[in-house]
Amino acid sequence: MPETRPAALWAPRAWLPDGTGRGLWREQVLLRIGSDGRWSEVISGVDRPPAGAQVLAGPLLPGLVDAHSHAFQRAFAGLAERRESATDDFWSWRDRMYRVALRITPGELRDIAAQLYVELLAGGYTQVCEFHYLQHDRDGRPYADPLELSWVLAEAAAQAGVGLTLLPVLYERAGFAQPALRDDQRRFALGAADVWRAASSVNASGRRLLNAGLAIHSLRAATPASIDELRRLAEGFDGPIHIHVAEQTAEVDECRATMGARPIEWLAQQRLLDGRWQLVHATHAVPAEIAAVARSGAGVVLCPTTEANLGDGLADLPGWLNAGVPLAIGSDSHASRDALEELRWLDYGQRLVLRRRNVSAAPAESLPSTAERLFARVANSGAAAGEPAWGLVPGARADALAVDPRSPPLLGIAAERTLDALVFSAPGGPFRDVMVAGRWILRDGRHREADAIARRFEAAMRSLWGDGARAA
Fold first, then answer.
1. Which are the contacts of 4, defined by CB distance < 8 A and separation ≥ 6?
2. Catalytic residues
């Protein structure tokens, strides 16, 4: 069990929002924690810690939202990095990934997800949005409880102590011109009414640190009629709605051929988009689509390490930033479980293509730090998880990352360059302690259940792959 919730924290420095969508380092910050596990008061300039406040040794950052996760794919990380044929791309990777999806049992999923969630906590994420399309038994038939695998993921998150947003996925066909799923997609089948019932049941469960939104796998995997049905069901629903969109050029081309518009263009034409919507990847968006998303209030979720791993392409990050579109990051296939690495590769990808440095900085807007501009944007992504208040602000859940001031990237670094060094000079492990809902879940870089969870993970991997997890 996690340790007792402290009444308050006092940090020598903390990263606080400035009310304009940016963030600033503030000195001598007192953060009081309410009995509901949320920040009740955040005050800077408190030169002496009051009695009862826990004094931190180093800087304090808000916990981050992992806005796109497929937990079962953690069992596949590192096992698809060889090419035995003439070509290898997203579509060939997908076929191999389906083999994992067809084999995994509920117990294996629980143990793999628990290990993943501990790793994500260490990587700076305190809330995970689980884009959950693995629904049925291995033969494609529903479990006796249709939410069997949803509860398994909830159990894994509870073991780890991370917040979880479950996103049951509308998934009903194999492609734009295919009326049904392929046989190797049989575990994914879920219609609009089923998605709505699943989300409603999860939200009604009352489980701690658990909520639910809605998801549509993609325009290629859901018919316009079903998307419209889900829209009708969700009238008045204020939770998040996620969709994979424009990840692959083939998807864009097929959408234009069959639906008469590019994917994001079609969503905008149908007047679907609003502040609840999160467009995952949006890799192949054009300026007119970016402008339409900005007008709608929808957000985007970029997953740079997965997009690189799969050869998806490179999103127009400057376009999204300059348009003011809400931005979140996701670990997706879990090639990386480190939030700082995702931020690093957001800008590194642009640098490689544009042959310029610090592409995401905006000195004309008094934002010369690439790391600070990117961190401020993703630190404000609670809406992707159905949390309208997020960060080190009153009313937000008391999630925080206590940075080890003696971690190698910070040695000899001026305090005002802390985020620069953490994002661009930290190969891993700068977070000494991680708090979720007012309780420390990681202390001194360790999760108290890490060893037991790791043993169960190893057993699940052996069950899936045999000794050594060599084949995929």
1. 439
2. 281, 332
